[in-house]
Structure formats: structure tokens, C-alpha cells
Amino acid sequence: MLAIVYRGADDLRLETVPVPAIQPGELLVKVAVCGVCPTDIKKIHLGAVPPPRIFGHETAGVIAKIGAGAGPKFRIGDRVALHHHVPCLKCHFCRHRAFAQCPQYKRTGITAGFEPAGGGYAEYVRVMRFVLPGVVKIPARNTFAEGAMLEPVNTVLKGVLRLALQPGDTVLVIGQGPIGLMFTRLLQLRGMKVIATDLMDARLKLARQWGAAAAFRADAPRLPQKLAAAAPCLDAAVIAVPSQAAVLQALDLVRGSGQVLLFAHTHRSPQTRLPLTPSTPSHASHSSYKSYKSYKSHPPALDLATICSDEKDLLGSYSSDFTLQAEVARLIFSRKLDIRPLITHHFPLARTPAAIALASAPSADSLKVIVNQQLTNE
């Protein structure tokens, strides 16, 4: 079969590899589509994991073979969405609903060969027994692309539920790429007032269409004042871009007892460490930094009193929550959350490197990019 094999930093090659052999209790799935995810992009660009690997984990396709003992619910020909991480639901972390910290969850249960890494950038994938509970059948009226979006939507819904929000609360969503737009829509569906920021006008227009009550350019002059006028009381902020300045700005903007959720800061490096000072007054950063651009160029230090005395929460949310699968499927397949407009670009398997390049440096008209094996490789 054909696969896109990672051979090192920014080195992706179209190669012929064996169709993965399945074991008893496993599935072989012919891949139809696979979304391009920033998590994989970072690993590819940075050479963060040893090669060779076959990436791609937002996968949907057709069951081609069933191993003995896989259970009666699967049939050859079923159209399915896959879920590459499934927790044990028994360990300390699972009891505390910290599923992404579960040792079993940290294993990748879908592979196209080599060290398991999702495998969706290949013609076939092996689905291991322990992730079979994450397999979801795609209704006849829905597309493979909708099935592939279950995993990213799950991660976003998990993030929304991490916030202690009530209907009518106001939330700032910083960044309106595919993930930010999902946050905007899901928060709006749950009764929140959403304020959106981004650096692209086209995405701000989409944010309004997806439920944002107001949307502003992140580099607009007097942005804090504009945000304050649109939302005098900001209850929470979601950081959907890996910007340190945005985190500090959000902590400054949310009111006492407010929450700031980090969603995009997934790369571990010295640059992810915020400068700390316990002595700067919590209001000082606004008087010194008038816009996002100022924050980006000269970010203020984090005032720990904003966490302690002002009782603000700085939260993280990473990966998915397996227990939300049924709710996510209902949202997507009913099209209450219609994710189809988010998918703007399709690439055949052979052009996966181009798909990753576009997702890495999006154009004004690009949002979610997928590798679609229903297209020819020409």
C-alpha cells in the first residue's frame, strides 16, 4: 500500500509499505479521509519524535477485515470514524477524569506500520483491540469528513466543559482557526456570549456567522478598550493560539474568579515559560500595553496575585475525553454543529506534504485541511 512516511524533520516521503497485519480482536480499515492536525504538524516540523512513522489520527474509512473476537457490532463495509486513544477507565487518572494522563490512553492504538502514530496518511490502518470502544459508525447521510472531525470536536468540547461557566457568561476566544471556531460555536450553543479575536478579517467574519456576539482584529488599536466595551465583565478566555502574550492579556482581561483555558500550548520548550514577578500590580499591564501588538512585542510579566488574590484560574486542556464520544457524535451527525463549512481544502494522499504546508501557514481562505483518499494521487 501507499503511505506518507516521516523520515525526519520536514522529511515526508510517499512510499510503498506492507498492509498492516491485524491480530485477533482487531480491525483493518481502508482509510477514506484523515484530517491534518497541528499536533502532528509540530512533531513533523520539529523532528520531535524518532522516525520512521506514519502520522494522521483524525481518521475515517471502511472496515476491510475483522479479526476473530472483535465483537458482533462490526461488519465488513461499515463506514467508521476512529479514535486512536482510549483510556482504561480504572486507574487513578481515570478516576479523576484526567484521561489524557492515563498510561493506556498515552498508547496509540492505530497504526499503518512502524511505531504507532495514527497511520491515517496511509491506505490502510490497523485498529487495535483496546481502542475498539472508540470506533463510531458513520450514518449513511453523513460524510467521511464529518466522521474524521469527531476527534477534534471531542477535544474542544472537553475544553469547554473544563470551564465553570453558566448560560449568559461571556467568553473571549483568542484565535479563530478551525479549533477557535469550534470553541466559538460550542460555547454559543451552550448559551454563552462569545467575543472573538483573530488576525484575519475573513475568520472574524466567520466567527460572527458561527455565533460570536462581537469580533475584533487581535492587532487593532485600543483593543482592550474595545473588548471592555463589548464585554464589560469577561468570565473566561480560551487561548486557541500558541501565544504567550495572549495568555497574559487574557489573565489581565478576565474579572476576579475568571478562568483562562490554554488549548494550543502543547510544545514543551523554554519559550513556554512565562516570566514571573510577584510585585507588579495586576492592573499595570493595561496602562503600559495598549494593543495585542504591544503585548506581543513587550509582554508584561505574570502577576501571581491575579491567580491568588483575584482567584483567577489558569487551566489546561489536552486531547480528548472518551466519555464524550456519544455526545460529540450526536452534535456532528445531527449537524447541530455543522462542521462541513470548516473543511476548505482536500488533498490526495500523495500531496500530504502540501496539505501539511497549507495547514502550517494558512491562507486567508483556508481552515480545516484534510487528506482525502477518494481523490486521485495525480
Molecular structure report:
It is a single chain. With 378 residues, this protein is an alpha/beta fold. The chain is built from 13 helices and 18 strands. The longest helix is centred in the middle third of the chain and has 13 residues, at 150-162. A hairpin with a 2-residue loop joins strand 1 (2-8) and strand 2 (11-16). The strands form 4 sheets. Strands 3, 4, 5, 6, 7, 8, 17 and 18 form an 8-stranded mixed β-sheet that branches. Strands 11-10-9-12-13-16 form a 6-stranded parallel β-sheet, sandwiched between helices. It has 2 domains: 2-149 and 339-372, Alpha-Beta Complex (Quinone Oxidoreductase, Chain A, domain 1), CATH 3.90.180; 155-316, Rossmann fold (3-Layer(aba) Sandwich), CATH 3.40.50.720. It is 27% helix and 22% strand.
**What's the mean pLDDT score?**
91
Q: Please work out how many helical segments DSSP would assign.
A: 13
- In CATH terms, what is the architecture of the largest domain? Alpha-Beta Complex
Strand content: 15-25%
How far apart, in Å, are the first and last alpha carbons? Answer: 16 Å
Uncertain segments are: 277-295
- Estimate percent helicity: 25-40%
CATH superfamily of the largest domain: Medium-chain alcohol dehydrogenases, catalytic domain
**What's the Cα radius of gyration?**
21 Å
- CATH topology title of the largest domain: Quinone Oxidoreductase, Chain A, domain 1
The structural domain count equals: 2
Specify the structural class: alpha/beta
Q: Biggest sheet: strands, sense, closure? A: 8 strands, mixed
Work out the number of β strands. Answer: 18
By CATH reckoning, the class of the largest domain would read: Alpha Beta
Overall outline: globular
